[in-house]
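Justification of computing resources. Each target in the renewal requires a structure prediction run like the one illustrated here; the chain below, 311 residues long, is used simply to show the kind of job we budget for.
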Amino acid sequence: MRKYILLFFFVVGCAANVAAQSTAYLFSYFTGNSTDGLHLAYSYDGLTWKALNDNKSFLTPTVGKDKLMRDPSICQAPDGTFHMVWTSSWTDRIIGYASSKDLIHWSEQKAIPVMMHEPTAHNCWAPELFYDKPSKTYYIFWATTIPGRHKEVPTSESEKGLNHRMYYVTTKDFNTFSKTKMFFNPDFSVIDAAIVKDKNGELIMVVKNENSNPPEKNLRVTKTKKIKKGFPIEVSAPITGSYWAEGPAPLLVGDYIYVYFDKYREKKYGAVRTKDRINWEDVSDQVSFPRGTRHGTAFPVDRRVVDELLK
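Resulting structure tokens:
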């Protein structure tokens, strides 16, 4: 009997090791003023990230009045297709969209008119993609300021008039979209929401408290079981430190959840992680990113995807 027990644990251990070896991670990001487009980096451990394509762009933006490609968010569909949305302008009522089978060759870019029905909407910032497997539905959510729409929060003079909330649309095919609705409406100005699905099925959303007087500029967490029910507006205490952080990119790596973020005042990237989903450890001194990395998305892929990109 002891022999069979040992054999069982050996097989399970080998299976886990093979699964770990077959998974790699990609990070989509922009650099500089974001006019050159999509950049990609890869990692096998969630700590060391290396640029692909010699840190040159994979896709140059063509939509939006400013033709930017900031905050590229990529989500892989069940059929293997990669869908991407991004911020196309500082002050626009659309977001950019394109798709790819291999992250090299991309579809024609198009504008999704998510806030065209709101004539005073100031912006559509940092759209994110999340695929809800039970409903086979994609959620696209982003931050918008609509003057006078929400309770004002104390702001600094430089950010006067900016009071963001999260909105969303859903789609199953990226051709037809639901009506735009409120996604997350806390009692603070909020931007840069991003969701990761935990091993137990719980959805963990990281958001930035954008309040500026007194300045918050930190990342916080809220959780739900089902995205359709929404997320509680009561959020955690800050999971980041005294520095200013934005652009959270959560990623499940083994037993850890990592949250990578842009330390934008210091012009470098940082990270925190948690194993118990309660206490967060700052591991900024353990991660490395390509020079110039700015706000993007971290996502798992089959290792063969990275092998092809490295070619």
